[in-house]
Amino acid sequence: SLLLESISEELMISTDDVVNHIQSIYRKFDLPLHAELNDLLQRK
Predict the structure, then answer these.
(1) How far apart are CA 2 and CA 22, in angstroms?
(2) Block mean pLDDT (10 aa), the chain, length 44
(3) 2-11 and 15-28 helices cross at what angle (nearest 10)?
(4) CA distance 37 to 39
(5) Cβ-count burial 6-19 (b if 16+ within 10 Å, e if not)
(6) Which pLDDT does position 19 carry in this prediction?
(7) Sign of the torsion formed by the C-alpha atoms of 36, 1, 9 and 27
(8) Can you give the pLDDT at residue 22?
(9) Alpha carbon of 33 to those of 9, 10, 11, 39: distances in Å?
(10) Distance (Å, whole) CA 11 – CA 33
(11) Which InterPro entries does the entry link to (predicted)?
């Protein structure tokens, strides 16, 4: 995904790390993952 790629380029980390961070934040706050975000993460 272009968004994840640009985030990881900015932060100089892999998209896998970005995905892991996002997922752990959602788990930490016990938030349901948005369907669109989930699709994004699966498609990566």
Answers:
(1) 16
(2) 80 78 85 72 68
(3) 100
(4) 5
(5) ebbeeeeeebeebb
(6) 82
(7) positive
(8) 83
(9) 23, 23, 22, 10
(10) 22
(11) WH-like_DNA-bd_sf
Backbone angles phi, psi at 12, to 5 degrees: 55, 40
pLDDT at residue 26 in the model: 83
Reported pTM: 0.42
Expressed as residue numbers, the domain containing 11 is 2-43
Q: Give the residue carrying structure tokens 């989930």.
A: 38
C-beta separation of 19 from 4 below 8 A? yes
Residue 22's alpha-carbon distances to 2, 25, 34, 37, in angstroms, are: 16, 5, 11, 10
Give the whole-angstrom CA distance, residue 41 versus residue 44.
Answer: 5
What's the residue count for the chain? 44
Q: How far is 25 from 31, CA to CA, in rounded Å?
A: 8
